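Review form for a predicted model. The reviewer records the input and the model, then writes brief findings.
Reviewer: anonymous (R2)
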Amino acid sequence: MPDTPAFWISEADLQRLFDCLRAAGFQTVAPQVRDGAVIYDRLDEAAGLPHGLVDEQDGGYYRLTQHPDAGPFEHVAGPHSLKNFLFPPQETIQQWRRQEGSWQQLNTQTAPEALAVIGPRACDLAALAIQDRVFLEGDFVDPFYQARRERLFLVAINCRRAAATCFCHSMNCGPEVTAGYDLLLTPVDKRYVVEIGSAAGEQIAQQLRAEATLCTPADLTLARKVSQTLAEQMATRPHTPVRRALTTAEGTPASTQPDAAPVPRSLDTENIRDLLFDNLQADRWDEIASRCLSCGNCTMVCPTCFCSSVQEVADLAGDEVTRERHWASCFTLEHSQIHGENPRPTTAAQYRQWLTHKLAGWIDQFGSSGCTGCGRCITWCPVGIDLTEEVAAIREEAS
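Model under review:
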C-alpha cells in the first residue's frame, strides 16, 4: 500500500499536477469546453479547465451556464468517457501489402503513449472496471485495449454535485470514488484533498506534496462528508426536472432556465434481471419505439458499450489493405444480420435488446449490471428517452 499520507493542494497547485505528470512521461488529458460541452482531450495547462461553469442536464438537454464561484470540476459526466481513449471509435488493427505476388502483414503497431486522465468520476471508474472484465478477462484478451490500459494513469475527482440525469447511487457505483484510481482529488471549498491509490500515484504525490499541508484525520472526515452528503441527497430527495417545458400549453416559448435545486433520478434495481427477461412482450417496448429514432446515441456515449465492427479498406491500386475496427451499435439494422436475415428488424426489438442486455444479460455474462448510472444515455438521447422511466413503466405493467 502507498505510504504517502493524504495532503492538501489549492486550485493554483493544479498546474503543478499537470507538470508532474508530464515530467513522468504522461500526456495529460483533462476536461475542457468544446462545442458547448465539457469533453476530454489533451490539455497541458490547468487554465484550460472549465473554471466557472456548471452543466445543466436532463432528457435530451445539455447546457453550460456561468457560475463565477464554480471550480474547474463542478461539472459532472459529459459526452466523453474513458472508453474514448482505451477503446477508441476507430483504430487500425492490421495492415497488409501485396509484395511480389503474395500478401505480407506489415508490422506497424507501436506502443501507445502513456496517458494521464484528470477528472473521471466514480461512475466512470466503475465503467472502466466493467470494460476491463470484457476486454481483459476470460478466454480472449484484447491486445490493443490491454496496451493502452497498462499505460493509463487516473486522477479521479469526487463529485460534490449531481446532474438531474445521474443515478449512480442506484447502481452502487457512486457518487464516492472508492477504488480504481492512482490519485483522488476531493474538492473542499477552494482546495482539494489528495489521496493516493497506487504505487504510481505515490510517485507523483511525492513530487506534488513538496510544500503541501498534510491532512489530519479531521480533514479526511471533512472530505468524506462531501460524497456522503451528496449520496444522501440523491437517495432521499424525489427527482425534479432541471428545466421547465420548452413550450407552454399555448405553444409559445417558455423559460428554459433551470429550476431550483434539480435532483437526480433513481432506478429500482430489485429483481431487474428477471423483470426484463420475463416481460419481453410488454406493450411498453412498442411505446418506446414510437419515440426512439434508432440513432444509436445512447450506445455511443455509454461508457460500457463495447460492440464493434471490422472493415477492410483497400487502396485504389488494390495493393494495400487496412483492417479497421469501428464502434458499432445494436440500433443499426446490419448489426444483427445473420445469413441474410435480421432477427431484430424493428426499433422496438432493437431498444429491447439494448436495455435487456445492459441491465439483465450483462449480469449473466459478466457478473454485474452494464450500467453505472452516469445518465449519459438520457442526456444525449435526442428525444429524451429515460431508461429509469422505461424500467419503471415495465415494472408497473407487469404488476
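Findings: The two ends are 49 Å apart (CA to CA).
Further findings: The chain is about 30% helix and 20% strand.
Recommendation: see findings above.
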